[in-house]
Amino acid sequence: MLKIIRYTSLVLSVLLLAAGGYLWWQRGSIDPQSVLGGMSVPPGMTLGGPFELMDQNGRSVTDRDFRGRFMLIFFGFTHCPDVCPTELQVVAEVLQQLGPRADRVAPIFITVDPARDTPAVLADYVALFDSRLVGLTGTEAQIAAVARAYRVFYAKVTPPGASTYLVDHSSFLYLMGPDGGFRALFRHGTPPEEIFRAIAAGLGAA
Fold this sequence. Notes:
Layout: H1 2-18, H2 21-27, E1 52-55, E2 60-62, E3 70-76, H3 83-98, E4 105-111, H4 119-126, E5 134-137, H5 140-149, E6 154-157, E7 166-169, E8 173-176, E9 182-186, H6 192-205
Parallel strand pairs: 3-4, 4-5
Antiparallel strand pairs: 1-2, 1-5, 3-8, 6-7, 8-9
């Protein structure tokens, strides 16, 4: 079902780009298949911004709590059957490759399913991948706001015959600088080594 949705999104994205997709980028979200063959973003488009959420320990945090460190951010949900665990494993591998320099990176997992992903649920989930992972949740409004800031697409879907819903969502990793500014965007399937090189280069220049 999700493959059908993503294929449909790809077709729609091609049509939107042909008809003026730049305006859609400026006003909407990054659909899971809208970056066609590259990770560039339109000139003048911003990614990221202020947020206020709750971590897996129940503490209120904002984007400013991570100033001075790079942020490697992924949006997903704990009931995700494939993409989320794969990407979080990639994040864990990148942290391992960074060694001591990983202290200068904040690996962040932001849920797009706040109704189910409570702090306690997030705590158990992120611990499966790396103890340094920060899980963030919030109200529906808070999640919608941070998703808009990062141009994240997400939508509930219920496969035929299923007793509960899944969430179709963008599968990008965002690298934000120590100042909170956007640095790089990695699509699903990017090798850990490539992400490591980008972060290492940033750390060397920071």
